[in-house]
Amino acid sequence: MSMSFERYMLDMVQPMRDDLTRIGIEELRTPEEVEAKLPGAKGTALVVVNSVCGCAAGQCRPGVAQALQHDVTPDHLYTVFAGQDKEATAKAREYFAPYPPSSPSIALMKDGELVHFIERHQIENRSAADIAADLTSAFERFCR
């Protein structure tokens, strides 16, 4: 019995996708979905660039989940998956200038403009609680 590489990867990453979708974050899987949501999002939008790496599992996704328990949260919640939904991720990253591609990473946008960004190097050596604190501070500043 053989399984295609694509099917294997889909099965392997589904739990990583579920970490975010089960808490209400909408996946954007195509460039068209990104284009339909990000530039026209009124209010605030959180965009998580998900990935398969250990810092995404140990710090990024748990930190985002903790932050979303805060009283003040963004109006819209989105995610793209680096390395899996490559075209959607590339399109989302167009809105994150001047920051270089980074995964995982977390963007906070307000009325289509980037207002806060957490890069991989700000995730990999911090705890989920530290990331949540960073995000909740940004939520307090930009989401009220």
TrEMBL record:
InterPro entries: BrxB/BrxA
Gene3D superfamilies per UniProt: 6.10.250.2150, Glutaredoxin (3.40.30.10)
Superkingdom of the organism of origin: Bacteria
Family of this protein: Belongs to the bacilliredoxin family.
Listed name of the protein: BrxA/BrxB family bacilliredoxin
Provenance organism: Paenibacillus montanisoli
Lineage: Bacteria, Bacillati, Bacillota, Bacilli, Bacillales
